[in-house]
Write a structure and sequence with these properties.
Length: 63
């Protein structure tokens, strides 16, 4: 049974090696596809999160 919708999110909030061992031995979430859309998954792969000052751009007119 999966606790979260994201394997990478689970690993960021649990002990990674213990989670990986349980996932492999118990075949947890074996058919899940990681979409990398949530903040913890993005951080794991080095993507800037889309929250806070990173969620928008400031544009201004130059005239």
């Amino acid at each position: 049974m999966c606790i979260s919708t994201s394997l990478l999110q689970e690993m960021t909030f649990q002990t990674t090696t213990a989670f990986m061992k349980d996932a492999i031995l118990n075949k947890l979430c074996i058919m899940d596809v990681e979409d990398l859309l949530n903040t913890p998954s993005g951080v794991v792969i080095g993507r800037l999160p889309h929250v806070g000052t990173g969620c928008f751009d400031i544009l201004y007119l130059l005239y």
